[in-house]
Amino acid sequence: MKSREEEYKEIFIAEALEYFDSLNRHISTLEKQPDDDQTLAEIFRLLHNLKANSKAIGYLQISDVSHKLETAFSLIRNKELAFSDEVVAVLFDGIDMLGELIQNVDNPDQGEPDPILLRNLDIIVENLSDSTIELTKVQKYNTSKNLSLSELIYIQIKKLDHMMNLVGELMIDRDRIISISKELGNDELASVSSHLYRITEDLQYSVMGARLVNIGSLFNKFPRIVRDVAAAEKKEVNLELTGQDIQIDRNILQIITDSLLHLVRNAITHGLERPEEREKKGKSRVGHLRLRAQSDRENVLLELSDDGRGIDLRKVQKTAVERKLVTEEVAAGLDETETLSFLFEPGFSTAKEVTEYSGRGVGLDVVKNAIDSIGGRLTLETEKGKGTTFSMLLPTSIAVKGALLFEVNGIFYAIPLIHTDQVVALDKDELHEVGDVLITDLKGETVTVVYLHELLNAPEADMRLGDKTRLKGQVQNIIVVSYNNRKLGLIVDKLYRQQDIVVKPLSKPLESIDLYGGVTLLGTGKVCLVLDVPALTRYFINRRQG
User: Which SMART domains match (predicted)?
Assistant: First the structure.
């Protein structure tokens, strides 16, 4: 994996070369139309950005030349310097020098910028009162040298998206070819399909890798944000950042940016106490906020932790009763996980009093929905008086997902692994009928269990989810899924394997069925429906509460 410094340098060079090409184009336009204010403004913007970026990364020669050129064009914009032939020649030479400095940032033999040219730039900038500026004739660089192109290029995200979609289609056909080769028992076809598998896998990870960016590109924006919000709230906050080198799909990072900003602001505003309040509790005056990223091959985990006041569960339950989300009797029996899930319900945390009750921010349902949209998972842990942690488990790719394949009533289904907690085989006697549902004990935790055949196929009037007599066989295969701090056990007929799948949206009118998040095609040619765990969990919870 590249270091953060190497990646930043590559990004800078690619962007700087693009600026250089744009400067050449715009200054040629300006020579023909010296009064074109829009072109002048664009040249000034490019030079200003190049100056700031090169200074930030430590390329001071580029920064210095950019600054001189920026100043010259500022004077031209303000009509303090005429865009004469002599001035044009110097500015063209200055931009050429920028190009050479950018292309040779790692060349120790490049030497210093041409002192005669730097002197001319200084004369242009400093001798404004003298209308007859005497410029030294610059010895032109070698104009017969070969043209060179950068090894780095910019690619529009939509082009990478299209490539990823094509790779997805290729993966589906690859699996089909492999399946056919096994059916035919043809050794030559098996050899070719095996080679195709390796190439397709390499291509998949290459395209996915081209879309990756360091999460530090987002994390490094937060120290300033934290400082500003803390100052406005009259609070003292120390931000700790970890895992800036972790890489993530650029589209996913874009989608969760607003959500993370929302959580950080709320942690400072509602989670952390004022200095005097912290001192009374025996805490340090400075509140601590930690933003951490870590990854495995499949997922990226983002955690935001504060050591603030935590969430008062009883006040959350009271608010849920007041908003008629649950009865007082049911609320009294809810555990911590079920209580915290109310914070993510639409409309729950939009009123001012709820912020005071929960000590947590406005609009957490919006955060949850954004993470749901990319197939991610959001969980929350809190301890009153100690602090709160939000955890966001995010996929490394939107197009390709790790999934668990299974069968119910002869139909193939898949569940994204990101929502799968565990798979267990339980004896029917370990399932207990309570009211109209089944429950079981898993490692000391009570989990509601649903017979998936009943939930997906039976008419609602006929559904008896707590009726054990409808179960097939003595041993039940159960997939435990998790969403919105709730767990749900799904009884299935047969379990198959884990597999990377390419999820395609359902066509009309099937796309209106909430329980399905899409469809994929297996190597056998069978159609496989992909379950939407958030929708499935919401449907079951709403049905119980209804």
Answer: CheW, H-kinase_dim, HATPase_c, HPT
pLDDT at 2: 57
The predicted-structure confidence for 242-263, as pLDDT tens digits, reads as follows 998 888 888 888 888 888 998 9
Per-residue pLDDT reduced to its tens digit, 457-508: 655 545 566 677 777 888 888 999 988 778 889 989 888 888 888 777 777 7
| Whether the predicted model's global pTM rises above the 0.85 cut | no
* HEC letters along 409-452: CCEEEEEEHHHEEEEEEEEHHHCEEECCEEEEEECCEEEEEEEH
Looking at residue 459, what is its pLDDT?
Answer: 56
Per-residue b/e over 279-298, b at no fewer than 16 CB within 10 Å?
eeeebeeebbbbbbbebeee
Give, in degrees to the nearest 5, the angle at Cα 17 between 13 and 22. 150
Q: Which pair of structure tokens corresponds to residue 129?
A: 């009162």
Instruction: Please report the pLDDT score of residue 357 as a whole number.
Output: 32
**Residue 518, class by beta-carbon neighbours within 10 Å (0-12 exposed, 13-18 middle, 19+ buried)?**
buried
Tell me the residue type at 377. R
pLDDT averaged over every residue in the chain: 81
CATH of 213-311+359-395 among 1.10.760.10, 3.40.50.300, 3.30.565.10, 1.10.3900.10: 3.30.565.10
Give how far Cα 456 sits from Cα of 24, 113, 404, 513, Å.
Answer: 63, 72, 18, 11
Q: Write phi, then psi, for 132 (nearest 5 degrees).
A: -110, 70
Q: Report how far residue 87's alpha carbon sits from residue 83's, in angstroms, rounded to the nearest whole number.
A: 6
Distance CA 546, CA 538 (A): 12
Domain 400-545: homologous superfamily in CATH? CheA-289, Domain 4 (2.40.50.180)
Residue 350 confidence (pLDDT) above 50: no
Cis amide linkage into residue 509, ω under 30° from 0? yes
